[in-house]
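Q&A log
Question type: sequence-to-structure
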Amino acid sequence: MPSEEVTKVTEMVYEVLVREAMTKEVMVVGPSTPMRELREILRVNRISGTPVVEEGALVGIVSMEDFIRWLADGSPDCLVVEKMTREVRTVHDDEPLVVAVNKIERLGFGRLPVLERSSGRLVGVITKGDIIRGLLKKLEVDYRRAEVRGSRSRHIFEDIAADKSTLVLEYRVRGGDFARGGASASALKTTLRRLGLHPQTTRRVAIATYEAEMNLIVFTEGGRITARVAPGRIRLRVEDRGPGIPDVERAMQPGFSTAPDWVRELGFGAGMGLPNIQKCADRMRLDSKVGKGTRLEVDILTEQQDDTGRDRAEARA
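Response status: OK
Response body:
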């Protein structure tokens, strides 16, 4: 079994989109707003910072820290444009919450402006508080639905008249297609839920698939993810014809990444993909040849309930 159980909260940061958790009603200021007015704007709205927007476009962000530094300098009144931060780190509304969590943690920011991917316009702001509230809301909805914990998947295979049966699901992933990042993982998770697999199993499969899918998008021109669902086991196979991994052992170390800066700016390439996959796996095998590509195989033993209602693994070998 993997060293750590995949929790419901861990699953949700991959599943919930930024748009579902962000604050949509955003207080903004213009570049020509006087700094002396900023304090009252922050106080009345009970916020610690605000985006700076000009003609609908995000041009900067100004925070309480910027205001305090202005006061400490003893400078005369000036416009926000002179004190704002121009290089703004943002997230897109269609990205999974894990991207915002990683950026906020890595950058040490209290908030991130949220942009609509197609238009680039500001559609919200996400804070640590928004993330917590979004996860709590999702938890409440899921518990109302009462997660399915039956053995329906076992019955599906028992109804098939064959000595051995396997359901094969295949997903194609295009390199560089960040807009569809996580689509394959989401589709596979939906299918496994409909098959009635144990929630703990679907969490582990979904997270492992998401991380593998993003590796294909970030580092290769594309590849294929195949899930073979059999009684007691799910095997993921991820194949690409990309550049390969020069040092597999080093690539398995948490935090190691060869992702370029622009990819890191998008919130990906933090060097946790393969370690996260390994945490979800009962068995993992990685074969890579430089210049030829990589093949990753992950086995996850399925969980279900025995006749007394207690969780157990269907197979251990």
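Response note: Residues 148-313 form a domain with the Heat Shock Protein 90 fold (CATH 3.30.565.10).
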